[in-house]
Amino acid sequence: MAFVAPAWKAPLNATTSRANQLLRSGLVMWGLDANQRIFSAYGVGYQPVTILIGADKTIVKTLRGGQGSSTLRAAIEELLSISG
Quick check: helix, strand or coil at residue 62? Predict the structure, then answer.
């Protein structure tokens, strides 16, 4: 399982700095989607949004807006049970 978080409208260094404060595990890969290729590929026109993608590369769940840790944890556990 991989966690990837593309930044879009904010500078990469600012996004990475804030992410490191919030997600201290270091398990999230951050990148800059300056040309909005990732966002376009998944039909995302705004942030924040969480898209969970299964092992077969299909979208399993889309969570729009900011989410609490319990919602994210439940969604990830659901993805793991599907992909397991």
Answer: strand
pLDDT at 84 over 70: no
Task: Give tens-digit pLDDT for 7-32.
Answer: 777 777 777 777 777 667 767 777 77
Q: How far is CA 70 from CA 28, 67, 73, 74, 76, in A?
A: 18, 8, 5, 6, 10
- Count CB neighbours of 15 within 10 A: 19
Cα dihedral across residues 57, 54, 26, 68: positive or negative = positive
d(CA 58, CA 75): 15
Nearest CA-CA partner of 48 in 8, 2, 1: 8
* Rounded-to-integer distance, Cα 6 and Cα 34, Å: 9
Q: How many Cβ atoms from other residues are within 10 Å of residue 3's Cβ?
A: 11
